[in-house]
Specification:
Layout lengths: L1 H15 L2 H9 L6 E11 L5 E11 L4 E8 L7 E5 L7 E6 L4 E4 L27 E11 L2 E10 L9 E7 L5 E7 L5 E12 L2 E11 L4 E12 L20
Antiparallel strand pairs: 1-2, 1-13, 2-3, 3-4, 4-5, 5-6, 7-8, 8-9, 9-10, 10-11, 11-12, 12-13
Length: 249
C-alpha cells in the first residue's frame, strides 16, 4: 500500500510541473566542471557522399567555454574554434584559419551560419539561457520505450534567434534531452536532432548527436569518445592564443 502511495505521489508531482519547472530541472542537473574528449563528425549530403572529421574538444562551465581543434581531414588540420559565453554582452566566437594565418571573429549576426559545413549552427553550439526562452508543456510522449516530457521552447525577441521555436523530448526519470525539433522563422521544421548518453562518474554524458537538416536533406553525426571529466583543466586555456596550439588528448 505504501509503495502504491509513493508511485501515485510521484505521478501527481510529474503532472503538476510546468514547462518552466521542467526546463529548470534540466538546467540545474549535475554536470562536470570540465570535460575533454575526442570528437568524430560525419557529414552526409543528399547524394550520400560523406566527409569525416576528427577533433579534440575541451569544455568548461557547462560548455559555456569551449575549444575545438581539428586533427582530420588533412586539409582542416590546425583549424580551431573558441567560444566564450557571457551573460552581460555578446558571446565571443573565433576561428583560427592556419591556411590564411588569421583569426576570424564570428559576429552575433552570423550565429545562424553553419559550423564547418555541418548541420550545427553557431547558435546550436551555445547554451540555451533559461530566462531568454519561454516554455510551454505539451502532451507527454514515449521515445524508444521511455516516458518523456515534451516542451515547446520559444526564444524571446531579445535573443535574436534564427529559430522560431524548438520542441524538446526530455526523459522523465533521468532528465536529459533525447530528441529536439527546431523550426525556422516561417515555423517550418528545419532540424531534427537526436541524442544518446553514457553514464560517466555519475554524470549523464552525451555520447552521440545526430542532426538532420530536413530542408536540405543533409545530415551530421557526431560521436564522443576518450571522454575525461573533472580534469585538472586551467580556465586560462580559453583564450585566443590557445587556438594555435593543438593539445594532446
Amino acid at each position: 500500500m505504501r509503495n502504491i502511495f509513493i508511485i501515485m505521489f510521484g505521478i501527481s508531482i510529474s503532472l503538476g510541473q510546468s514547462g518552466y519547472e521542467i526546463a529548470k530541472r534540466l538546467d540545474e542537473k549535475d554536470k562536470p566542471k570540465n570535460m575533454v574528449n575526442r570528437t568524430s563528425m560525419v557529414l552526409t549530403n543528399s547524394k550520400g557522399k560523406t566527409r569525416n572529421s576528427v577533433m579534440i574538444t575541451k569544455t568548461m562551465d557547462n560548455s559555456r567555454c569551449q575549444l575545438i581543434w581539428f586533427l582530420e581531414p588533412k586539409d582542416d588540420r590546425g583549424v580551431s574554434f573558441l567560444k566564450i559565453e557571457h551573460d552581460d554582452r555578446d558571446d565571443e566566437m573565433r576561428i583560427w584559419l592556419p591556411a590564411f594565418k588569421r583569426v576570424r571573429r564570428i559576429s552575433a549576426s552570423k550565429k545562424g551560419d553553419s559550423f564547418m559545413g555541418s548541420d550545427l549552427s553557431y547558435e546550436d553550439m551555445t547554451s540555451r539561457s533559461l530566462d531568454e526562452n519561454e516554455y510551454k508543456r505539451l502532451d507527454d510522449d514515449v521515445i524508444d520505450g521511455r516516458d518523456c516530457f515534451v516542451l515547446k521552447v520559444t526564444p524571446t525577441t531579445s535573443l535574436k534567434s534564427s529559430y522560431s521555436m524548438h520542441k524538446l523530448w526530455i526523459v522523465k526519470d533521468d532528465i536529459y534531452i533525447v530528441k529536439e525539433e527546431s523550426y525556422d522563422k516561417r515555423e517550418k521544421l528545419k532540424k531534427d536532432k537526436s541524442f544518446s548518453y553514457l553514464k560517466i562518474d555519475n554524470y549523464d554524458i552525451m555520447s552521440k548527436i545526430s542532426v538532420k537538416d530536413i530542408q536540405k536533406n543533409h545530415r551530421t553525426d557526431i560521436s564522443f569518445d576518450q571522454v575525461k571529466v573533472d580534469t585538472n583543466m586551467d580556465e586560462k586555456i580559453f583564450q585566443e592564443k590557445s587556438l594555435k596550439r593543438i593539445p594532446k588528448l
